[in-house]
Amino acid sequence: MADTRRRVKVYTLNEDRQWDDRGTGHVSSSYVERLKGISLLVRAESDGSLLLESKINPNTAYQKQQVQGKDPSVDITQDLVDESEEERFDDMSSPGLELPPCELSRLEELAELVATSLPSPLRREKLALALENEGYIKKLLELFHVCEDLENMEGLHHLYEIIKGIFLLNRTALFEVMFSEECIMDVIGCLEYDPSLSLPRKHREFLTKTAKFKEVIPISDPELKQKIHQTYRVQYIQDMVLPTPSVFEENMLSTLHSFIFFNKVEIVGMLQEDEKFLTELFAQLTDDATDDDKRQELVNFLKEFCAFSQTLQPQNRDSFFKTLSNMGILPALEVILGMDDIQVRSAATDIFSYLVEYNPSMVREFVMQEAQQNDDDILLINLIIEHMICDPDPELGGAVQLMGLLRTLVDPENMLATANKTEKTEFLSFFYKHCMHVLTAPLLANTTEEKPSKGEPSPYNDDFQTAQLLALILELLTFCVEHHTYHIKNYIINKDILRRVLVLMGSKHAFVALCALRFMRKIIGLKDEFYNRYIMKAFLFEAVMKAFLNNGSRYNLLNSAIIEMFEFIRVEDIKSLTAHVIENYWKALEDVDYVQTFKGLKLRYEQQRERQDNPKLDSMRSILRNNRYRRDARTLEEEEEMWFNTDEDEMEDGEPVLLPTDKSKNDDEIMDHFGKFMERKKLKDGDEKEILTKNTLTGRQSPSFKLSFSSSGSSKSSLTSHSASSNAPGSPGSPGSPGSPGTIAKSTPHMAAITTKGGLIGLVDYPDDDEEEEEEEEDGDEKEQSAPLTKKSRLGS
């Protein structure tokens, strides 16, 4: 007997809004005491486990075969399958879906058929085929006229549901019919009668009476003209007519998106191939006789044309922009940007942004060629800079966009370098020669002298719009400091730009003062001594110090930014700036104790002075710092054994003991010692123990004694007690000192001593290496005890 229970799939909506399959089971409904109501229960068909237990909400519309909303408590939805296995098999084997006759009385039945077919891919496919084969859509649109003439609202509401369902079938063949010239307006008419609205919309009235199609240049190709009309109307349907798709329908209109996309590609291609059309377009754009309204329409058309090009594939887009370049789009833009009409200039700026974003090198090449023929005032880049400076918008929206384009043009990261020429060098030389003075003109004009004391009128314009403009210019200059090394350095130092910028530290607008400080911080961050000498020579820290002291004890961004700059100088140990700050501004800073930055700077300065007073000590420290390294443990052991295995006769009286690694030894001597060492290594452990029993240095094992070698005319060994003074790192007789045999090999490159009138002074080790040296001491003690004692016996006798 066939299982008549309903089979279902249970899905869970996860955090990423993706559906997770929880399994297949059988659904039933029963009263659940815990949930206090009738609930849906789904038990897995494999093992009978409970997949879902959800109380039925009377306000939720449940439908078969369709994923509906979620239960608020468990965030799980259910997909109720309408067919049994036999029914599904019958559906697959049946030839197709039979549609009811296209009559007014059957519209409700047809609407129900469309709604129930949508959740099932198989039934959706069959419905689409039936609609295509029978020419059903045109019959439905004839019924629409009948219903509208009869004012049959019920029939119109059913037609709305049917047409909307056909859109969700997502079939290109159906769209071709619906969007044809004879059908598209009727389809839009059907979608005006949304059952959820009290009054129908008036989309057709808007498209026929309000929206006007303007041919700025007459289009001779009727197919192109029809394609433009169709694309506009389908875009209107997508954006305005169809309801916003739900989370379950968002992928059901992908074919509609594709239809619009490929239409735009076709339009761009057909216009691009029509050379007569483009030639006429650019001729009228640059013609002085063209009136302003006509020119505005031409520019808007060109802007829309470039926007459509964004749908092209990279290869086709490349061809598109090359075509525009050959037609002279950049000279045309130069003419348009020189006009007074703000709307025309705004559209031209958008077109220019498309060109810069796509191929900045093409724009750079054009302006460099142009510079050879024209004056600086009419260069394209200078026009862009002037529009940025003269932006009438109080919020400087256009200026921000133009500054971004300039930044792209001067960015070395997207500049090409070939075997014959370097675009970076050529363009930056051009920019700093012909354009930089235009960019910095507002900055220099507004910082002619320092701001006077409080209460006096400001000599420079400090209103909000000017402050925003100066902030934009400073942002671009800061970018140049970071990415243009040679050119910007010469410009800043020769034009004394930093001094002028720091005048803005006195601005009443905090963001401008911070921009000026950021500019100086970027310069200091380069740690370039050319910049440092310029800063010190001109005493440019004075403006920063005034701002810091005027800010008082307020804990704000300006305070933190200034402290961070001085902290950078301290951490990076920029000696010249450290000395300059302390020598000139310490009195003003010595009372600042809520951070340790300035006291740390003073300490750095004192350390510098100490090293200057004792240059020999400083040079020794640098030698030690540069020569410190960790010796390989195996090399250490080998060298110690080689030393102990060396005969006393080989040493001359009065000559200090030298290690085999001494640079004065040649390679032959080293190899000789190594050969002897290898022979000694062949001795058996029994021989070593026999020597050990004869060893008279019993005190050698005591931690209170260490071996010390004297270099005062005798190579004899002596025993010295392990006094407190020997604990000093580097002192004779202590571990790690040159006099300790256990550590002599590793301490020689690390430690040194200076002879003064007071005797032998050990240099202090660096604190960050204490841990390393403790490990080395322990290694050294172990090696002392494990080394062969042949030499030790002689020393003790």
UniProtKB/TrEMBL annotation:
Residue spans crossing the bilayer: none
Database matches in SUPFAM superfamilies: ARM repeat, PH domain-like
Region (Disordered): 645-669, 692-797
Gene Ontology molecular function, alphabetical: protein phosphatase activator activity
Annotated Acidic residues bias: 645-655, 766-782
Origin: domain of life: Eukaryota
Annotated Serine/threonine-protein phosphatase 4 regulatory subunit 3-like central domain residues: 109-607
Low complexity: bias regions: 702-731
GO CC list: nucleoplasm; protein phosphatase 4 complex
Gene Ontology biological process: DNA damage response
Family: Belongs to the SMEK family.
Name assigned to this protein: SMEK homolog 1
Organism field: Chiloscyllium punctatum (Brownbanded bambooshark)
